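Chapter summary example.
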Amino acid sequence: MSEATARIHPTSVVGPGVELGAGVEVGPLCLLDGKIRIGKRTRLIGHVTILGITEIGADNVLHPGAVIGDEPQDLTYTGVARSVKIGDRNVFREYTTVHRGSEHGDVTVMGDDNFMMQNAHVAHDCRIGNSTIIAGGALLAGWVELGDRALVSGNCVVHQYTRIGRLAMMRGLSRTSRDVPPFCIMDGTHTLRGINVVGVKRAGIPSKSIHALRHAFTTLFGTHQNLKLAIERLEKSGDATAEVSEMIDFIKASKRGVAFGPHDRQSSDDSES
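The structure predicted for these 273 residues follows.
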């Protein structure tokens, strides 16, 4: 155990396989048990549990009750070596959970600058990008992919193997078992409502591209139609921006199918009218 430049509260238990970077703080009543590596200046405020084969980068903050690297909630799991890999500058608020990979998986991955609010859950084998927000009570099942700067609002549920695209937003209490394309707002049961204009503006996407995304959304989801044919019409128009192309490529790659447009076109409402 490397702890020469780390601060460990005397009430915490740190196993022999743990490596702590310079400036790491382990607060009271923490348990670190496994092949664990924690990067520089990461803070475990107290009552934090880290298990298994877990790598956590620099400048993360783990609040009381957070559990990282516990066994997957998978009835087929037999204790084989699986892991969690987390990047830098993430925040894990009270009682958040990130589970290791499953029997048939490998590793649960989270990038940099993510914010998990209280009681949020990331299940086995998820792939979480950078700068995402997973709000209080949100539940991501196994194998979920969450794109950069996506927002999963409070008490949302995401079915296993579902993908949430870059800069997409799930409104509170919503649920999906279908992929949510990048830049879109979703609510209810996998129902797309419009473009996340506020989010894409904050990300620095120019007005011309936002206008193109709104047009693309109307073309693809504004009426009930064959989505493949709608994509073909959009591609033939010849004026797709990089963001529109990203949305199209995401839809084409979907294995579960994508979320639906609103039943009534008049109910479409992106985040800025």
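To summarize the output: Helices lie at 197-202, 207-221, 227-236, 242-252.
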